[in-house]
Every structure is written in structure tokens, then in C-alpha cells.
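User: My advisor asked me to double-check a structure prediction for LRRCT domain-containing protein before group meeting. I don't want to rely on an old file, so could you generate it fresh from this sequence?
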Amino acid sequence: MISYILLLFLSFLVLCSIALPSSCPNLCECDQNDSSWSVYCRKAIINDTIYAEILNQLPLTLRSLHIQPPSNRIGSNKLRWNDNINRFAQLRVLRLINCQIPAMSRSIRLPSLEVLDLHSNNIEHATMSNFGGMPKLRVLDLSSNHLNILPTGVFTYLRALRSLSLSNNTISDLSTNLLRGLNSLRVLRLDRNPIPIEHINELFTDVSQLDELYLNHCNLSSIYSLALDRIPQLRQLGIGGNNLKMVPTKELRSLPQLSVLDLSHNSIQEITACAFCNTNISKLDLSHNLLGISKDSPFNEDAFRTMPLRHLDLSFNHMNDFDSKWLGWAQEELTSIALSGNFLKNFEESWTYTLKSLIHLELAYNHIKFIPVQLPSRYYHLISLNISGNELTYLPDNINTLLPNVKTFDITANRFHTFSHTDLAFLNNVEQVYVDGNPWDCSCAIQGLQVHMRDRYAMRHILNYDNVRCATPSLVEGHSVLAITDVNDCAVLFGARYGLTQTSEMLILLAGVLLFAALLLMILGCIYFLRERQYKGSYVTREHSRTPLTMANTHSCSSSTNDTHGPLSPPFDPFLVSTETFKATPPLIPPAPPKPGSSYFGI
Ligand SMILES: *[C@@H]1O[C@H](CO)[C@@H](O)[C@H](O)[C@H]1NC(C)=O
Ligand SMILES: *[C@@H]1O[C@H](CO)[C@@H](O)[C@H](O)[C@H]1NC(C)=O
Ligand SMILES: *[C@@H]1O[C@H](CO)[C@@H](O)[C@H](O)[C@H]1NC(C)=O
Ligand SMILES: *[C@@H]1O[C@H](CO)[C@@H](O)[C@H](O)[C@H]1NC(C)=O
Ligand SMILES: *[C@@H]1O[C@H](CO)[C@@H](O)[C@H](O)[C@H]1NC(C)=O
Ligand SMILES: *[C@@H]1O[C@H](CO)[C@@H](O)[C@H](O)[C@H]1NC(C)=O
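Assistant: Sure, here is a fresh prediction for LRRCT domain-containing protein from the sequence you gave:
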């Protein structure tokens, strides 16, 4: 016996010692794949002390580390660069976001690092020596820092760099040859910097192989002088937020391969004939322009001629009305359209009726209050529907038949408190459901949603599960829906909203059952008693009137109890007929023989 306990104790110790070195830091979440770890620390505010502890605790096989303050709480991470990160020779992805990091170290040695994301920090300077120890880096994000001047050659060591973001800094001056030697660079983001066009043009000579260029919000009132002909392979261009008044049709002709164009946040009021003719543009963003200002269609009937347009964003254009016929040449082939933020409330037939290939529809921020029980026929084919930011509180009961093919359903930031069983039956068949930003009621009914979310736990970052939070009851207000566990303590039927605990509800239930049983007994007793009285009654009636025996089934309990008929005769119960009863008081007209299913014999 003692040896058995000892054995148990020993095995417990062994288990502990195996588990200890690879335990997940308790402020983080860890995804393990064989021995390589992906660690996310986004649940709590993290400072230098805690960061150092986390680095000490993680296994050397760490593959990915992501540190970012929680989105819902006030407060911010505050970190300085810690060279202990160099322990992780297998680290591929490092994201230290919104951590107030003032500078990068000059002795970083991360030979496997492929992705370095330092956006939203306080980095003011960058030099060549910062990037000497990461030869495999493919993606570098330094956006939303305080970079001002970048010295020549700063990125020279990053021979494998494919994507560079310097967006939202205060770069007003680019040194010549800044990108010299970056022969792998394909993606360049320079949004929200006051860089003069001449400096941008000079960059192009070093990276003529660019695939994607983003110059959104760069205070360009025209792109006339932008030397796009130096980057002829460009496939994606972002020139949103630049106060453009017209589509730069002429300039786009030097980009024969362009397939994605962002013209959002400009001041475009109309799309003229052949605005994009002979381009390869299949995805066009015209959101946040002024297309709804004119009374009629803002699109010339030849606006989308000779271009392979598939995806069109017309959100936030002050359009109180929309007719899909306006899209002219694009109608047949368009597969996705966004009409968000346009005061389009009532799911009109005219929004979609000529779009024969439509499978993605976005109707966010349109003050939609409910989904009607009938939708235009095109909705039957939708694969994704985005109705986030509206005022929905419920889904129709037949949602399953309205949207049978939907795989992505976004109802972020509506007014849902809870889902019914039919809602959940529908949602559980949808691959990606975005439910964050709703005021969830975390009493019992939330369990269905929790089960739904746990099934999709692997996609929790995509589906923003961090922001799926309780609004009521007040005890758990602001808590993550996934983290709520005391739901188990809530009542079974009535919900905790009436302040009932499980025990008191059980008592109420028990009392209810007892009461019901008592009632049932009373009713049975009454029926039995009534039957006896009825048969006695029929005997008496028959004796006097000689009418054939009929069973008075329709007598109610109260009406038959006050009959005051003559002498009591022995009870007659057709189910309890005994020969003795017949002998004792033979009825004048013998009771009709039982007719077992007369219809069987009648034919
Ligand atoms: C696990 O690692 C293998 C290779 O090491 C990779 O192919 C696979 O995609 C990883 N799975 C997940 C879920 O990260
Ligand atoms: C970091 O936070 C922990 C707990 O919040 C605190 O005890 C510690 O003093 C903090 N360290 C620094 C350097 O601020
Ligand atoms: C740009 O950076 C500043 C801080 O540097 C930040 O407050 C702001 O939100 C950023 N803007 C965007 C659009 O990211
Ligand atoms: C934007 O450009 C105009 C001239 O086109 C200039 O007057 C203005 O100062 C610039 N604004 C900023 C914020 O750089
Ligand atoms: C046009 O764009 C598509 C992708 O949208 C691409 O596959 C195709 O190669 C492009 N054609 C030309 C001529 O660039
Ligand atoms: C839904 O639309 C909103 C508003 O345009 C957008 O921010 C959001 O990313 C969309 N959701 C998905 C899943 O694409």
C-alpha cells in the first residue's frame, strides 16, 4: 500500500518535472505544433519585468512571438528591446506591437527571422546595424513609428526583403539609393508620409520590379508627375486619401498589369466613359468618395468597359439609392460588391437584380434594423454576407433557407444579446461567423455561443474572439465570452437574469413537479368519480325513458355532479363487466355488443 502511494507520488514528480520547462507563461496563450511554439501575449499589459520573465520561460524552439496590449483596456505595454530574444535561433515571426519601444538593438541575432513587425512603437532612428543579424527577413513593418530621416543604405543587409512598410511616420525626405540592392522587394508601403513626389520617383529606379505600391494619404493632389512607367510590373496601387477629383485614366495606361486599384477617400464624383479601359483591373475600391452626390447614376454606361472587373467597393458614397443596372459592362461578371455606409436599409431587389455572378455582398453601416423573411433571389447564392455595424437584434427563423450557401457571415457591432436555437443551428453550419462588438448577455443562453466559438477556436484571431464580450449581467460585464465559466452556476430554465441560482431553481422545479402531480391526481380522481356518476345516471334515464344507451361523454364535471336521480344502481363500467353484475340487475335493453373496429368488417 505504502509503496503504491510512493509510486504515485514519484510519477507525479516526474510528470511535473517534464511539464515545467515548457509551461506557457500565464499572461500568454500558446499554440504548440510538435516542439515549435507560437506564443500570443495579448491578454494583459506587459512591462519590461514581465517581458523578461516571459522570455526566460519560453522554450528555445520558439517559432513565433506576438506581444500586443489587449484592445479593450486602457493602458499600454511599455518595453525596451531585450537582447535575450537572441536565444531563440529558430524564431521566424516576431511581433512587438504598440509597446512604446523607443529603439531597436544594434546586436540583434535572429538568423531564422522572416517577419519583424514593430508597428505602432516610438522608434525614431534606424541604422544599418539594426538589421545586420536577420539575413532571412522577408517582411519588415515599421509603420506608425516616429521615423524621420532614414540614412542611405539602412536596409542594405536585408537581401531577402520582400515587403517593407514605412507608413505613418514623419518621413519628409528619402535619401537617394535608400532601396539600392533590394532586388527581392515587391511590396512598398509609404502611406501617410509627406514625401515629395520627386523623392518617390527616385526610389523607383532601384526597385523597378515592384508589384505593390501604396501611397495613400500622401497629400498628392494629382499623380500626373508620378513616374509610374519606371515600375511597369506593378499589379497593385494604392492612391487613396489624396484628394483626387478624377480617375487618373491617362496615368494608369503605363501600368498594363495593374489588377488592384485603391481610389478610396478621394473626391471623385463620377466615373467617365472608359475610365479604366484596357487595364487589367479586377478589384477596384471607390469607397469614401462622392459618387452619390449627383442625382442619377454617377457611372457612364461605358465606365467599366474592357476591364475584367470582379470586385467593386462603393461604400460610403452618400448613395441613398442604388441600381445594379448602373454598372453597365460590369454587371455580368461582378462577383463581389460593397455598399456599406450608404443608407441602404431595406434589401431592395434593385441593388442586386442584374448581378448574375454575385456571391459576396457587404452592407455594413446601413442602419439595417432587421433581415426580412423574404430576400431577393440573388441572396440564395451568396457565399459571404457582411452586415456588420447595423442595428440587428435577431435573425429571422428561416435564415437557414434565405442564406443556405453562406460560408462567411459578419454581424460584428450589431445589437444581438443572445442567439436562439434556430440561429445557432444556422450559424454552426457557417465556417466563419464574426460576432464581436455585440452586447452579449452572458447568462445561461450564452452557452450555445460558447460551444460555437470553441469549435472555431483555431480561428480566434481571425474572428476577433478577443472582442466578443459580455455586456450583462453586470457581474461579468466586459469579460470575454469564451472566458466565462460561472455560466454553469446559472439557472437551468429561467436564466440568471431573474436572480435565481441553480439550487433555488431546482427547488422551484421540484415544487412545480409536485404541484403538477397533485393536480393530475385530482383530475384523475375527478374523472373516475364522474364516470361512476355518469353510468349511474344513464341507467336511471334509460329506465324511465327507454332511450337507447348512449354514453354521455360530453358532460362536464360540474354539470353532472348536481344530477339528483333516483335509486342508486350498481355501477356499470364497460371495462369491468362481471357476470355477477349482469345477473343482479339485468338491463332492460342489453348493452350493445362491443364492436371492435366495425369498419374492418363493414366492407
Ligand atoms: C505545424 O508545423 C508543420 C511543419 O513543421 C506545418 O506544415 C504545419 O502547417 C503546422 N501546423 C500549424 C497548425 O501551425
Ligand atoms: C511591471 O508590472 C508588475 C505587475 O504589474 C509590477 O509588479 C512591476 O513592478 C512592474 N515593473 C516595472 C519595471 O514597472
Ligand atoms: C499613425 O501613428 C500615430 C502615432 O504615431 C497613431 O496615433 C495613429 O493612430 C496612426 N494612424 C494610423 C492610421 O495608423
Ligand atoms: C499638401 O500639399 C499642398 C500643395 O499641394 C500644400 O499646400 C500643403 O501644405 C500640403 N499639406 C501637408 C500636410 O503637407
Ligand atoms: C491580369 O490580372 C490577373 C489577376 O487578376 C493575372 O492573373 C493576369 O496575368 C493579368 N494579366 C496581364 C496581362 O497582366
Ligand atoms: C465587413 O465590413 C466592414 C466595413 O466595411 C469591414 O470593416 C469588415 O472588415 C468586413 N468584414 C469582413 C469579414 O470582411
